[in-house]
Design brief:
single chain, four-stranded mixed beta sheet
Length: 112
């Protein structure tokens, strides 16, 4: 299950959040190769965040997914999510950081 968590200093007032969530969900689903109904998206708005010493629009995001996080997938996620945030929230791609984590499922433990 991919989970994308975005924190931004931008307010979502006046933003079509349904479209934003839909676009992010579809992008993550396609890039990671998981069905949309397994994708979780969280966006925290108006957080106290500076980047480069100023409070201009910026975002920090983390994505965690089971499997499917290879180098090419990471690159596609960074470019695509950065473009979505630039187009919808006016956050320049140079002011966006994405941390990508691949997780593995814990092995099933049998009773002793």
């Amino acid at each position: 299950m991919p989970c994308l968590d975005i924190s931004t200093n931008v307010s979502l007032d006046g933003v079509d959040t349904d479209s934003l969530f839909s676009e992010l969900t579809k992008a993550v689903s396609q890039i990671v190769g998981k069905p949309e109904n397994f994708v979780m998206i969280m966006v925290k708005e108006s957080v106290a965040l500076t980047f480069g010493g100023n409070k201009e629009p910026a975002a920090l995001a983390e994505i965690v997914s089971m499997d499917g996080i290879k180098t090419e997938v990471k690159r596609k996620l960074i470019v695509t999510i950065g473009s979505i945030l630039e187009n919808t929230l006016s956050i320049p791609r140079t002011r966006f950081i994405l941390k990508v984590f691949g997780a593995t499922m814990a092995p099933k433990i049998s009773k002793l």
